[in-house]
Design brief:
Blueprint lengths: L2 H30 L4 H22 L3 H4 L5 H21 L7 H19 L1 H10 L4 H28 L2 H19 L2 H7 L3 H24 L1
């Protein structure tokens, strides 16, 4: 690979990381939002770092992972569950769980959600890198500071302006429903059209927000 091509691929990877970091950063922000600032930073860095290390290990089989039935379905359900748990936390702003327990729990959420959401990201980076392992590792490593910075910023915004939590929950609802409908098993059995996907995503978003509003009223 000549130097010009190498540089162009590197720039493409930076842009891909910037574009694809949003969903992952939102999940991380939701998971660590209620932690104290110091534990929030630790949880974000540790969760993102572990997830990226696992991404490196999975890069070789990333294309095969996209064909495994029920993987994205389970990941979508997990993202919806995180959104629902966040709505529950809004109604209970002072958790009783010790900070250390919540930190470990947040790291676990981050790793599982990040891996199930990141197979497409891995493939995009591998494609942009032209299968050059140095560039692949550069792209996966670069995603850590992008995700850490943006997730901490999002968590701070949600703590300062709680109404934005509902926007984040709506986005997670859309992401979770989209993951479920693009699972190979769902595609094989339902052959979902664009209209069906939009409808299911709208129902997921509306259902989460209405359930959260009713729970908040109680």
């Amino acid at each position: 690979m000549d130097s010009t091509r190498f540089l162009i691929n590197g720039l493409r990877i930076v842009l891909i990381d910037l574009l694809l970091a949003g969903d992952n950063a939102l999940v991380i922000a939701m998971a660590v939002r209620q932690l104290p600032p110091r534990e929030r930073r630790i949880g974000t860095v540790c969760g993102a770092a572990v997830a990226v290390l696992l991404r490196v290990a999975l890069t070789v089989v990333a294309a095969q992972l996209l064909t495994i039935e029920y993987l994205k379905l389970a990941g979508g359900l997990f993202v919806l569950w995180i959104a629902w748990k966040v709505l529950g936390d809004v109604c209970e702003p002072e958790p009783d769980a010790p900070s250390s327990k919540r930190l470990v729990q947040a790291i676990w959420y981050i790793v599982v959600a990040d891996l199930t959401m990141s197979v497409d990201n891995i493939l995009a980076i591998a494609g942009a890198a032209g299968n050059h392992w140095g560039l692949i590792l550069f792209g996966l490593g670069l995603s850590i500071p992008f995700v850490v910075f943006s997730s901490n910023l999002l968590a701070e915004i949600m703590n300062r302006y709680p109404i934005t939590i509902y926007l984040g929950v709506a986005i997670l609802g859309q992401v979770g429903a989209e993951m479920m409908l693009t699972d190979p098993a769902a595609v094989r059995m339902l052959h979902p059209s664009a209209a069906l996907r939009w409808g299911v995503e709208a129902v997921a978003v509306a259902g989460l927000l209405i359930a959260g509003w009713l729970k908040a009223k109680r």
